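Troubleshooting log. The previous structure file for this entry was overwritten by mistake, so regenerating from the original sequence record. Sequence copied from the archived sheet and checked twice against the printout by T.R.
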Amino acid sequence: MNFKIPDRKKKIIKRIYKVALIFIGIIIIIFNDTFGRLEGFVEFIAFYFIIVLITVSHWLFKQIKSIIRLKKEKAQTELMHLKSQVNPHFFFNMLNNLYGLVDKDSKKAQELILKLSDMMRYSIYDGQKETVLLSEEISYLQNYIELHKMRYHKTIDVEFKIDIEGNDYEIMPLLFIILLENAFKHGVENLRNNAFVHIDMKAENNEVKFVIENNFDNTIVNEHGGIGMNNLKRRLELVYPKNHTLSITKTDAVYKAQLNIKKL
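Regenerated output below.
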């Protein structure tokens, strides 16, 4: 992340530098007239100049440190705000479904409530952490899939292939859910038959690869993403600025998203 010193700070620094030079010049003239022939005058001026330089450098260092701290705090605040925007409409829709299920199928409604409770707990508490274990994120995605399977009254072809090499990975929470949510929202919801969502997640060589494909009704004009995708892209820029790639492709009636993240 590059840090620029504001113009106002630059002007202050330049003024201090000019004043210091003028002051040193005056001191040199005075001492040269008075002690020009005395030994040690050059050493005195050099020592004085070093003191001034150290003072100015210390002040400048404090100003730059303050700017960096403010930028970091701003980025963290923005990141927390982005995290809080994840999934609100999903929970709202699920609560509406639960309302209709309570009288019709109380047992199914209870199962939905338990899974929804687990998801909300994860989103509210673990979702605010800097990192979580990849296995926890996977469980969150699996709960989301199960909730949708219980919600729809149609057959959905869902595949979730997982291949994690070695120990568990740490990753920023609530990244993949946006891509999964889009697959259901723009694909499954608009298809009466043969809807599918295929997911392939691999973690190897300090890199996590997440690929998701879904079909959609190409007679319906819609855009995958919107606010959710902008949210995802911004969070990736803040946390993995040079350690991620996100590619989106659409061919015929199949939408594919691939997200690669390298460990920090």
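The chain has a mean pLDDT of 77. Archived copy saved in two places this time.
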